[in-house]
Design goal:
Layout lengths: L2 E4 L5 H10 L3 E4 L11 H10 L3 E3 L3 H13 L19 H20 L8
Helix pairs in contact: 1-4
């Protein structure tokens, strides 16, 4: 089972539930009072601490954060950044694409990759 953290622009009710139906442990920032309002660094830290794959369409802000962690030699359990036009993506299409990318990410991480951008 893959542990996921859905960034705030991804609906936990719609996308999170679809991923849970596919067997993933999906937690969403939206609707979670403990997580709402976290800045991007806080989101990345939470995903790492909880050993969750971060799912976001906000790749522009997260790539420099991940690069900075890697450069500093800090451990990053793993990060997964889904780039998609979320407004146009269907729940089924997005969850299918995520499932495919997660399989690739797991293979890469098993080969020693520190982070995976897909």
């Amino acid at each position: 089972m893959t542990r996921l953290l859905l960034d705030e622009h991804l609906s936990g009710k719609v996308i999170g539930e679809a991923l849970q139906e596919r067997g993933h442990d999906a937690r969403a920032i939206s609707g979670d009072k403990e997580l709402e309002g976290l800045d991007d660094e806080g989101v990345l830290e939470r995903a790492t601490r909880e050993e969750r794959v971060l799912v976001t369409a906000n790749i522009v802000d997260f790539v420099p954060l991940i690069a900075g962690l890697n450069k500093a030699g800090k451990s990053l359990s793993y990060a997964f950044l889904a780039v998609a036009n979320v407004a146009r993506a269907t729940v089924s299409g997005l969850s299918t694409a995520l499932a495919t990318c997660l399989r690739v990410a797991v293979r890469c991480l098993g080969s020693g990759a520190r982070s995976v951008l897909a």
